[in-house]
Amino acid sequence: MLCFRILTLLLFIIKTNSMNNQIMLQSAKQIGAGLATIGLAGVGAGIGIVFAALVNSFARNPSLRQQLFGFTILGFALTEAIGLFALMMAFLILFG
């Protein structure tokens, strides 16, 4: 009877530690994903700066409209790619 109680107690301790490790792992994943999404704030600011520069440049020289718009779309695409990489890292941390 005493052996059974000791074995039950040991199994309970092992199971509790395993559950604590799972909770710690899940908590670390959530924190890591949150930190990975901080890069998205910079992307929002970057896109705003790109289009503000377009408006400013177009106001100064309207004859360069087509060329400025092409550069703006390129800047938008590169800035958005950084945001997608940050979002991809967050998803890899959460579900990987």
Brief account:
With 96 residues, the protein is mostly helical.
What features would you highlight for this structure?
96 residues; mainly alpha; F1FO ATP Synthase; 3 helices
Name the CATH superfamily assignment of one domain: F1F0 ATP synthase subunit C
CATH architecture of one domain: Up-down Bundle
Q: Which geometry do the CA atoms define?
A: rod-shaped
Please report which band the strand proportion falls in: under 5%, 5-15%, 15-25%, 25-35%, 35-45% or over 45%.
Answer: under 5%
N-to-C SSE string, H for helix and E for strand: HHH
Total strands: 0
Sheet/helix structural class: mainly alpha
Radius of gyration: 26 Å
Can you put this structure into words, describing what you see?
By secondary structure, the protein is mostly helical. The chain has a domain of 56 residues: F1F0 ATP synthase subunit C (F1FO ATP Synthase, Up-down Bundle). Helices cover 92% and strands 0% of the residues. The chain is rod-shaped, with a radius of gyration of 26 Å.
